Amino acid sequence: MDQQLPNQQQPAQQVQNPNPQQQQAQQQQAQQQQPTNDQPKEGKGDGKTGEVKKLISIEKLLNSIITAALDQRASDIHIEPEPKRVRVRLRIDGILRESWSIQKEYEQSLIFKIKIAGKLRTDEHFAPQDGRISFKLDEGKKVDTRVSILPTTHGEKVVFRLLTQDGRSFELKDLGLVGQDFEMVQRAYQKPYGTILTVGPTGSGKTTTLYAILKLLNSPEVNITTVEDPVEYNIVGVNHIQINTKADLTFASGLRSILRQDPDIVMVGEIRDGETARIATNAAMTGHLVLSTLHTNDSVTTIPRLIDMGIEPFLVASTVNLVIAQRLARKLCETCRQPYVVTEQDLTAINRVRPDIGRYLKVGEQLFREKGCANCTDGFQGRIGLYETLQITKDIRDAITDNANADKIFEIARKEGLVLIVEDGINKLRAGVTSISEVNRVTALKV
Ligand SMILES: [Zn+2]
């Protein structure tokens, strides 16, 4: 890490913020920091007082970053050392945006402060560390965070995950599941046994969908237990278990133990190995409702993935009830979204890069695109799920048992009315909920 000498830069250069109001606040903090450099410049008091004052202002800086991140509905904060500055980025609705630039000389104090708050080792600079920090902010606000520190070539990079409860007050009906997809999900979770899987890349909202289902199933008459990594938030009445590899509490061992605790409904954070897949399948076979996630691109390829993990085709066929493949698209801001009519040129441009999207669109139809206003981030506000819901019907069950490949299963599912993620995206595009750029971006994501 760079050891910088006290320099002559103006305080205003220390923290640059694109948002003028925040910029002013940051500058005030920067001014507070300026006299408290490592060297006791002021010549008043001893070095100790200077250090304490510096920590206080670094604490203010950290609190203002957390507060701004919360206000902007960010999910993560990245504090990244670069050769000449520290970059701070926020992930908002799945997209990273640069929010501040902090002068390099404050890097070590900031990291030190974070390590103290997270009860991490302050003398360790070369090993990854992680912990939790609960911030008490102004106006009685409080937020829990998961913090991870990783040494990079330019210093220690810090990532905070904000564990906010308010963004989680979702209901299944608000996630974007519509029509037959919504009905299929309702039917599947009302069955007393079998497996419901949500699939897609990291950050596609798989766990959120499962939480929404758990909230509907949650009642005093049933024992619901989860094994997760991490437990992001708690549903009252549900037993959440955090995996802990140091204590040999993995998805597989946790699941095995849950099954000795008289469960009705079990949620496994992720099926990523054969052992977990086998225990989950057994649980579903023996009268439990099992919810889990898997990393596959689409609904149909989940079936061969489970078979590749060592589950017999007839067991996959008899236990899996429903596979929900999904992505999260940013929702257009309703205040500033711009209506436009699709032109010949628009269609040609789309067809050049994504003919699978272009083939659903027509010249002359009205869509909406993003603009940007004071109420939103780049024209977007919040996110909505795009879904592909595969119900394991009798014909599909027979095909799986006969060891049919993914193409054959896909053919049957399409005949039975399977709506693809991109088609759900087109529907939401036509409804003015999202934009072509978003449908393009999220449906291009591969696992
Ligand atoms: Zn707007």
Automatic annotation (TrEMBL):
UniProt GO molecular function: ATP binding; ATP hydrolysis activity
Region listing for Disordered, in residue ranges: 1-50
Pfam families: T2SSE
Biased segments, Low complexity type: 1-35
One annotated Gene Ontology cellular component of this protein: plasma membrane
InterPro entries named in the record: P-loop_NTPase, T2SS/T4SS_dom
Keyword Nucleotide-binding appears in the UniProt entry: yes
Highest taxon of the lineage: Bacteria
Compositional bias ranges of the Basic and acidic residues kind: 39-50
Record's keyword terms, sorted: ATP-binding, Nucleotide-binding
Bacterial type II secretion system protein E domain ranges (all copies): 259-273
Family annotation (PANTHER family): PROTEIN TRANSPORT PROTEIN HOFB HOMOLOG (PTHR30258:SF1), TYPE II SECRETION SYSTEM PROTEIN GSPE-RELATED (PTHR30258)
Family membership noted in the UniProt record: Belongs to the GSP E family.
Protein's recorded name: Type II/IV secretion system protein
Species the sequence originates in: Candidatus Dojkabacteria bacterium
Lineage: Bacteria, Candidatus Dojkabacteria
